[in-house]
Amino acid sequence: MLQRLSSPHIAAPKFLYSPCVRSGGIGLVSGMVALDPTTGRLIEGGVGPQTQRIFDNLRLALPDYGFELRDLALARVYLTDFSRFPEFNAVWEQQFASLPPPARTSLGVQALPLGALVEIEFTFIQETAR
Is-above-0.90 flag for pTM? Predict the structure, then answer.
């Protein structure tokens, strides 16, 4: 049975979609851009700060989705300027300094919603559903 989940701890979606769809121990988190959880506006500061905000928002939402970062199996990363990948990757490596990293796909794209520089979607898998 599919559960469509949201979190009151992050900005509400700007468009019509489910932030997270869960079935048993599998969770699909829609692409996240760096929205300030209080104002709902895209933060400024470049790829590094936007990547950090995405991970901060993910951590805020995960308890509502029933997952932990250690359950992350796959991330798909979209960057509007792939020459900025090192900035993204520096923040990424901090997130997984004490956790095994998930599988990852990184893509360069022409544009992202709301003028974001980076967007990340996440797939979570739990051995046993909590």
Answer: yes
